[in-house]
Specification:
- With 373 residues, this protein is α+β, with helices and mostly antiparallel strands.
- It has two domains: 229 residues, 3-Layer(aba) Sandwich (Rossmann fold); 117 residues, Beta Barrel (OB fold (Dihydrolipoamide Acetyltransferase, E2P)), CATH 2.40.50.
- The chain is built from eight helices and 20 strands.
- It has a six-stranded mixed beta sheet with strand order 6-7-8-3-9-10, sandwiched between helices. Strands 13-12-11-14-20 form a five-stranded antiparallel beta sheet. The chain has a five-stranded antiparallel beta sheet with strand order 15-19-16-17-18, with no helix packed on it.
- A hairpin with a 4-residue loop joins strand 11 and strand 12.
């Protein structure tokens, strides 16, 4: 029987394709990456997620060999990459800009790397044909990049990387140049491609939904450091810090002090939020994350009682935003706090409506201690 591995950790017996140990990267006086430690398993789809300027692209460039770490150890398939140039690493990169040669046909674009390596013609034809078939672009072999759509260009860029049969595929904001509908379509195709190939994919993105939907594990970065590593479910349902909770999807962040017997977070306004027991001591300042979809919303004259929930409060609808499948409501509690609540689109509230909000204690994710409110 296969050994069960926690999604957020790597077992000592597992095969690692990429490992970063205490990686630091500076540009002059600016530190882009600070003491980065990552272990990426063989065959997994690993997402590196964070806002612009957090160091995620610099991290990918160091793995690719385009930039060298200032200090620390980087290994690929157990071999140190110190001094190893990009073209000698078993990795290939797909860029957001595709970086295709417009004067070359699709076939020649995909074959370019193999021609540089002076592959025998028969082997080259076979590999190029296989790569184009993988991305369903074999019928476009004679076209030029200017004759292709954005999604087709992305497929050609993938084929050009795959033709070299890398151990690790690096994806730098691979779908960022596509419109929303095509981006979602390409997410499915990228996931299917990863499953068919079974090689390691490392993707850098600032798109939370993209990272959650594609990755086996995600590293969330901030200011050149890792905030949290875990499965998409762990990152979303159990964020470690206020930054992770706020960056991954929508959330309500409430600050206060922990009180025991019963377990509550008491805010400066006097609002008390019932929470599940935590390791934090009595009087400790803390934040909690409460996802909008966890909150039940009902009119104050509704026949159902909200009092079967650990938390129930009165409020007023201040604003609504229709987004298609959902309606986002801003609710102001009688104590002054404002909560974002996600509702199905068939339930309509108007600004000024008096409502009850209710949620379970278990839905309050206690985060790392914060400063005193």
């Amino acid at each position: 029987m296969a050994q069960t591995i926690s999604p957020s950790t790597v077992d000592a017996t597992e095969v690692l394709d990429v490992e970063l140990q205490n990686i630091v990267k500076t540009f002059g006086e600016e530190t882009a990456v600070q003491g980065l430690n990552l272990q990426i398993r063989q065959g997994e789809f690993f997402g590196i997620l964070g806002p612009s300027g957090c160091g995620k692209t610099t991290t990918l460039r160091m793995i690719a060999g385009f930039d060298a770490p200032t200090s620390g150890q980087l290994t690929i398939q157990g071999k140190s990459m110190h001094g190893v140039p990009a073209h000698r690493r078993s990795v290939n990169t797909v860029f957001q800009s595709y970086a295709l040669f417009n004067h070359m046909s699709v076939w020649d674009n995909v074959a370019f790397g193999l021609k540089v390596k002076k592959f025998p013609k028969a082997d080259l034809r076979q590999r190029v044909g296989e790569a184009l078939t993988l991305v369903q672009m074999e019928s476009f072999a004679k076209r030029y990049p200017t004759q292709l759509s954005g999604g087709q260009k992305q497929r050609v860029a993938l084929a050009r990387a795959l033709v070299n049969r890398p151990a690790v595929m690096l994806l730098d904001e691979p779908l960022g140049a596509l419109d929303l509908k095509l981006r979602k379509q390409m997410q499915v195709e990228l996931s299917n491609l990863h499953q068919r190939l079974g090689i390691t994919f490392i993707m850098v993105t600032h798109d939370q939904e993209e990272a959650l939907s594609l990755s086996n594990r995600i590293a969330v970065m901030k200011d050149g450091q890792i905030e949290q590593v875990g499965s998409p479910n762990e990152i979303y349902e159990h964020p470690n810090t206020a930054f992770v909770a706020d960056f991954i999807g929508d959330t309500n962040l409430l600050s206060g002090r922990i009180q025991q017997h019963p377990w509550t977070l008491t805010m400066a306004s006097g609002l008390q939020v019932n929470i599940a027991p935590t390791h934090l001591g009595d009087g400790t300042p803390a934040d909690i994350s409460l996802r909008p979809e966890k909150i039940q919303l009902m009119a104050q004259d509704h026949t159902a009682s909200p009092h079967n929930h650990a938390n129930h409060h009165q409020g007023e609808v201040k604003h609504t935003l229709y987004t298609g499948p959902h309606i986002h409501c801003i609710i102001e509690l009688t104590t002054g706090e404002r909560l974002r609540v996600l509702q199905p689109n068939h339930i309509r509230y108007q600004p000024g409506d008096k409502v009850h909000v209710a949620w379970a204690a278990a839905d309050c994710q206690v985060l790392a201690p914060s400063s005193s409110p």
